[in-house]
């Protein structure tokens, strides 16, 4: 007992002594963002598991709805113009639709492959931003596109009709995430990361509600068993809403304040890798050697175009 108390006291003194040092800030920032990518990587597997118990639209409706409710106090504090309210809610709606497309892709493509393809938003974002600014994209961007496309071909291997549909949804998700990131850039000038997450969670929740009403009018059977899910399904919903949305966003913002933007961008590229690890451990999904090479090519292309994000002082 005494040794435990002395150990805890020593740890506390060490933390107090080093918490102001640059090395400690860097280490804590790295751990924070790494943990966020682990949470996001596992969330892809959770979505795949959850859509076996309920329609993916309902799963995501619960995710963003609960996150929006938890973060709505931060939204009420915002003082935005009508234009920026529309942009914030609109990018949230785009986020919800993109995650929905990603979920649909997982129906026909293994979750780890979907994660690597969707991660191409890292490549698409600077290209889209360059076109919007009427700037010719750098040659390195086009090289990264070629490398990533070769990686996708190796990752997928043979094609069937179902695989083509899944690949299309994954690419659309990547494009949607890119547009959402570009649109969010304007809001970052007027709100903190946690406030933006709240605003976009509300927007995504509203978009999922509209889609659910449309889908329900066409296929009323999707409402069968609504809210009467197993404890495991509720745990998945709670994980996606609280950990994958609220907590991971906080970890991202907190970590980026302690790292250079280049370091943070490189860590974010590990999300599909974590997805592949969890898919192997939980879903028993394995990758062949060509698929591993394809995944490495995609990660390499992401690293080539990882641009520094704006870091708060």
Helix-strand blueprint:
Elements: H1 2-18, H2 22-50, H3 56-76, H4 82-105, H5 111-118, H6 121-132, H7 139-156, H8 161-187, H9 193-218, H10 231-256, H11 261-268, H12 271-282, H13 289-305
Rg (C-alpha, Å): 20 Å
Give the uncertain stretches in residue-range form.
1-15, 308-313
- What is the mean predicted local confidence, pLDDT? 82
* Largest pleated sheet: none
SS-derived structural category = mainly alpha
Helix content: over 70%
Q: Order of SSEs, N→C? A: HHHHHHHHHHHHH
Number of strands: 0
- Terminal residue distance: 43 Å
Alpha plus pi helix count: 13
Choose one word for the global shape: globular
Strand percentage lies at: under 5%
Describe the structure.
- This protein has about 325 residues and is mainly α.
- Helix content is about 80%, strand content about 0%.
- It contains 13 helices and no strands.
- α2 packs antiparallel against α10 (about 230-255), α5 packs antiparallel against α12 and α6 crosses α8 (about 160-185).
- The longest helix has 29 residues, at about 20-50.
- It starts with a helix and ends in an 8-residue tail after the last helix.
Task: Write a short abstract of this structure.
78% of the residues lie in helices and 0% in strands. The protein contains 13 helices and no strands.
